[in-house]
Amino acid sequence: MAGVGVVGGSGGANDLQWCFSQVKGALDEDVAEADIISTVEFNYSGDLLATGDKGGRVVIFQREQESKNRPHHKGEYNVYSTFQSHEPEFDYLKSLEIEEKINKIRWLPQQNAAHFLLSTNDKTIKLWKISERDKRAEGYNLKEEDGRYRNPVRITTLRVPVLKPMDLMVEASPRRIFANAHTYHINSISVNSDNETYLSADDLRINLWHLEITDRSFNIVDIKPANMEELTEVITAAECHPHQCNVFAYSSSKGTIRLCDMRAGALCDKHSKFFEEPEDPSSRSFFSEIISSISDVKFSHNGRYMMTRDYLSVKVWDVNMETRPLETYQVHEYLRSKLCSLYENDCIFDKFECCWNGSDSAIMTGSYNNFFRMFDRNTKRDITLEASRESSKPRAILKPRKVCTGGKRRKDEISVDSLDFNKKILHTAWHPKENIIAVAATNNLYIFQDKVN
Amino acid sequence: MAASSIPLGKGVKRKRHEDDGGQAAAEYTPQTFHCGTLLDISLLKLHQNCVLAERNLHRSVLIANTLRRLQAEIRWENGRNTMPSEMPLQPPEQLTSGANQLEPLSKMGEEITDLNNNIAKAPPPSLIEAPFCLLSGNDSSLSSAISTILQDLDYVEDLSTPLGQAPPEDDHLLPLKPVSPDPRPEPRSLDSIFTAFEIADSDDFLIDGSLDAIFEDIDTSMYDVPQAFPAGACPTIQPNKASRGIHSAKPHNSRTDFELENLMDLLVG
Fold it and tell me: DSSP class of residue A403?
């Protein structure tokens, strides 16, 4: 993928164009709250795509093998498994409802025929095993074929059950439940590169777990002050380094990132590196802090960079340079003059995620009006695309969108005041190897792929 | 920034209107009005957050921090208007207007919490050093209103070691913050937003004389201990006060009954 522009533009032989591939989810105008997608994640090979929703369900799509009949048509994603991961709970002591909404899904690297993933709601993390069954045993001695137990007195002969092929059945079973370790809402989980441990982060604490051990975890970061009145900052996201199993990063509501080394001590309250960009005094407002709150942090695949998403921008940091980000990309700067209204209607608290492409040459994040943005780090070009039913014809090329901020509005442009702030794209995912992206628009999952000119 | 709320579109086309280009920062009245509007909005949000079944700490912290800035701004405006001849005040924040570029508060001053013991920054002068702080009745009632609303945002944590937690290693106890004497003149300010709502602290209300009267006819002999204590007072308040703020193991054998009673009162009352 090196050398090929991943962001479509006008002209250029190497430019990519994105086209519609599939859309999953109901077409109704009335969207059930439970169907709203809350997380999207490809597995390590990209063959599986998992989504979690507010109703606590996980739906896994599997990519079909490319067929020789349609060589130009990349494999489609079809439903592979659906299961209820979390149920709503009620904490009677604190009189609090615990939502079943799936906050994050993270796949484990595949080690055998089965697939494993971690899913979490606000309080509990679960390890799920998804396995295929395509054979069943027939010829039991003690049971009839329909499952009824035979009268043992009537059994006069014995036989060995035989394995016979059956229709493929995909089963999801909970293998571990990691509970009771978080007082506050879990916002992140991240599998370590050692494939044995993972971390989970809530507003004030980060815990390190071993995948095999559910009755204890190690607390590695604790920012809860002795006097809660001193609390002014919370943890917003955390991630393990992709290669160094001793390094992890976490972001805060004040726009800072801390890189920690677990070898330094059992409690990583002292950071190894502290990343913060000095505030621009000319743009300070009452909402400066809120919009600087980092909603997502992601290491690049090569581990050399970190990407952070705050309300208005995406920043790429070099892990070796703490003073300022390497690159800053404005996602929707036209919203800066609307912050008061966005504060009033709570949109300013929306948590957008961001993702890298497989070669770390491009980044993607969502916006409002079902727009999502892609930035090419090499060509410095960016593009705004829309996930909409209107442009959902098979292999239809997505037209770049533009928001008009002032002056004359061109024919295809949309003005800021016409944006639909209820249609927000918070969750996006990029296939780890190919130019296939999954974009969650409320209750619909859009899959787009490239079409090289 | 326009003071009136701009209803955000739901995909309906509308005519573009000219922006004001921001309000002049020097104008006092619109800014105060704007602060007042933001204050109302923020307080309402905080209250809603506590009422909602799902309490969002992240959101509350952000709103509370915004409230602090607003309160500091209002205080500064009050001080500026009532004592014009005093020493030049350091304005805590200014709404962006593009017109004025004031000396920015040093980034240092914004950090109040000693997070991770790495950032030792001075508290903002507008909140701590308050020689110019003229607290009108509105301001102090605002502070206590915020405190009251946010008081129970802290989750009451299990005092016993939870099932999922490994006991912390000896050389890495949770960082302790010494209970420093409150230098602020006002008894209860915006800084007490997240007052710890540990079970230990809730024993305080037992000292209140008015409550003693309610429980006068209740036989408390089962709670009596060899030491002499005033009627109604928790016998173990003194040792608890000394240990307040420390998260490690507390003696709770003799206090279990009180804990449960207090907890039931909180849940029911």
Answer: E
Chain A CB within 8 Å of residue B7 CB: yes
Given a cut of 50, whether residue B44 has pLDDT beyond it is yes
CB proximity under 8 Å: A 86-105 to B = 93-97, 99
From B31, which residue of chain A is nearest by alpha-carbon distance?
Answer: A286
Q: Which residue of A has its CA nearest to B69?
A: A286
CATH code assigned at A232:
2.130.10.10
Categorise residue B131: left if φ over 0, alpha if ψ from -120 to 50, beta otherwise.
alpha
- Residue tagged 């999954």 (tokens): A438
Residue A8 in any domain: the answer is: no
Residue A312 phi, psi (nearest 5): -110, -10
The span from the CA of B101 to the CA of B94, in Å, is 9
Tell me the whole-structure pTM to 2 decimals: 0.72
Q: Which helix (H) or strand (E) holds A339?
A: helix A339-344
Decide if A231 and B247 are in contact by the 8 Å CB cutoff: no
Residue B162 CB partners (closer than 8 Å, separation 6+): A180, A181
Domain range holding A373?
Answer: 18-450
Across the strands, what pairs with A368?
Answer: A424
The helix/strand/coil state of A336 is helix
Q: How far is A215 from A178, CA to CA, in rounded Å?
A: 7
> C-alpha angle with apex A89: A83 to A92, nearest 5 degrees?
170
CA distance B1 to B41: 15
Kindly provide the ipTM of the predicted complex, given to two decimals.
Answer: 0.89
Nearest-neighbour CA in chain B from A122: distance (Å): 10
Residue A13 maps to a domain: no
Whether A10 maps to a domain, the answer reads no
Question: If you ran DSSP here, which 8-state letter would residue B1 be given?
Answer: -
Q: B187 at the A interface (CB within 8 A)?
A: no
Number of domains in chain A: 1
Average pLDDT for residues A248-267, to the nearest whole number?
93
Cβ-Cβ contacts under 8 Å, B245 against chain A:
226-227
Q: Cβ of A280 under 8 Å from any chain B Cβ?
A: no
| Chain A 18-47, residues with CB within 8 Å of chain B CB atoms | none
- Interchain proximity A417–B65, CB inside 8 Å: no
d(CA A265, CA B154): 28
* CA separation for the pair B74, B93 (Å, rounded): 10
The C-alpha atoms of residue B259 and residue A3 are separated, in whole angstroms, by 66
Closest-CA residue of chain A to B115: A223
- The pLDDT tens digits for A208-223 are 999 999 999 999 999 9
Between chains, do B155 and A94 touch, taking CB under 8 Å as contact?
yes
B 44-73: CB under 8 A from A: 45, 53-59, 61-62, 64-66, 69-70, 73
The answer to the question of residue A333 being in a domain is: yes
What single DSSP character describes residue A407?
Answer: S
Residue A8 pLDDT greater than 70, yes or no? no
User: Contact A217/B267, CB-based, under 8 Å?
Assistant: no
Residue A229 touches partner B, C-beta closer than 8 Å: yes
Q: Which residue has the higher pLDDT, A328 or A267?
A: A328
pLDDT tier at A147, thresholds 50, 70, 90: confident
The alpha-helical segments, DSSP class H, found in chain B are: 28-51, 57-82, 107-110, 137-151, 209-214, 237-243, 256-268
Candidates A220, A230, A413, partner chain B, best to mutate (most B CBs within 10 A):
A230
Show residues of chain B in contact with A237, CB under 8 Å: none
Nearest CA distance, B134 vs chain A (angstrom): 22
A117-128: b or e for each residue (b if 16 or more CB lie within 10 Å)? bbbbbbbbbbbb
The pLDDT tens digits of the residues spanning B159-198 come to: 333 443 444 343 333 333 333 343 443 333 444 444 433 3
d(CA A337, nearest CA chain B) in Å: 7
